[in-house]
Amino acid sequence: MKTNISALILVLVTFFAISFITNILGPLFPSLVKDFEISLAVAGFLPFSFFAAYGVMSIPAGMLVDKYGEKPVMLSAFIMSAFGSFLFALAPSFIMAMASLFFIGTGMAMLQVAINPLLRVAGGKEHFAFYSVMAQLLFGGAATLSPMVYSAVVQGMAREEVSGVLTFFKENVPANMTWLSMYWIFALISLLMLVLIYFIKLPKVTLQADEKVGAWQIYKDLFKNKTVILFFIGIAAYVGTEQGVANVISLFLSQYHGLDPVTVGANTVSNFWMMLTLGCFLGLALVKILDSRIVLKLFAMGAMLALTAALFGSGEVAVMAFPLVGFFLSVMWSVIFSLALNSLKVHHGSFAGILCTGIVGGGLASPLIGLIADLSGDLRIGMVVVYLTLGYIFSIGFWAKPLVANKTVSLFKREESC
């Protein structure tokens, strides 16, 4: 199949845009808590607003793609994202923040559903694995870059004399909420993506039988399956772990070690996403020589140890250990997702929609962490939630019974040719 270069580039840029917009909440968390004068439990509802949109929209988005195609859904998604970004940038308040994040989350959920099949067609089926890895690298690169941009913008606006885009921010952003500049940037990115999508011709996507989204009855039947429920919780546990750690890093370093959230905090969050991306390379190698369930257990234990070092070590240790948690989280999404799909014989498209709905778990962890932290007066105690989610992920390595195990190579003997 011939590669559609323009469509392929558009899809890869879309992955970058999704991640750049999605993964900024962690660095912003200390500022949100301080400027809106809210408790940690209440602040936790901000990521909940974002990820609740995934829970609401993932399955309907698949149906919209089936009915209208990828391009209209992608255009609608970035309209939602632009609207949400402008909403918060023009009227900053806690309520507007929740509404804004819900609109942006809805757009991101629609994009996630639309672009994966499009990537397979635009890049060619035979290159799908390669471009999927490239997309994940871009996703991780954007998550790494986003906190760095935030730090640079806020520090730039602190100077007396500014120029270029910083002048616009200084004139349109409250002086005590310089972090709000990021939402003007998100709005601009969304508008630019709208223009790109509008002018680029996309290939027709013909879904394979196991990729198609089923009717509501299929979802009802799947939710009666114990395996489906267990893996749904597994995806929720992973996203809850990822977001629970990422959203706490900057706040924790500020509260317990007095480290500047705009510089050290944002940089540590950036390193967390960078290590999460780089860890994928080791994960790819390990699943070629070990059963993926063993890899999952090893990385879950590694994440628990790194988290413990981050929470109870010195400031210097915490700055190194938090990114190490990201490194150990790196393989979990792909391993859990593949184990899940390989545990059912049919309805993989509908099952994938259910699993993506489990992304709502990313929003449930933060309010729980905040509530326990507020009640106990100790953010470390609140992080027990992450130990529980990691414990569940660790357990998947024991009870998962895939119909097809990942193929491994032997390091000590040559495999016979089939």
Summarize the structure in words.
The chain is mainly α and 418 residues long. The chain folds into 2 domains: 207 residues, Growth Hormone, Chain: A; 203 residues, MFS general substrate transporter like domains (Growth Hormone, Chain: A), CATH 1.20.1250. Helix content is 78%, strand content 0%. The chain has 19 helices and no strands. Helix 11 packs across helix 17. The longest helix is centred in the middle third of the chain and has 32 residues. It is globular. The two termini are 26 Å apart.
Give the topology, please.
Layout (H helix, E strand, L loop, with lengths): L4 H18 L2 H11 L4 H4 L1 H24 L1 H21 L3 H30 L4 H30 L7 H8 L8 H19 L16 H7 L3 H32 L3 H29 L2 H21 L2 H15 L2 H10 L6 H10 L3 H16 L2 H4 L1 H16 L19
Helix pairs in contact: 1-6, 1-7, 1-9, 2-11, 2-12, 4-5, 4-6, 4-16, 4-17, 5-6, 5-9, 7-12, 11-12, 11-14, 11-15, 11-16, 11-17, 11-19, 12-14, 13-14, 13-15, 13-19
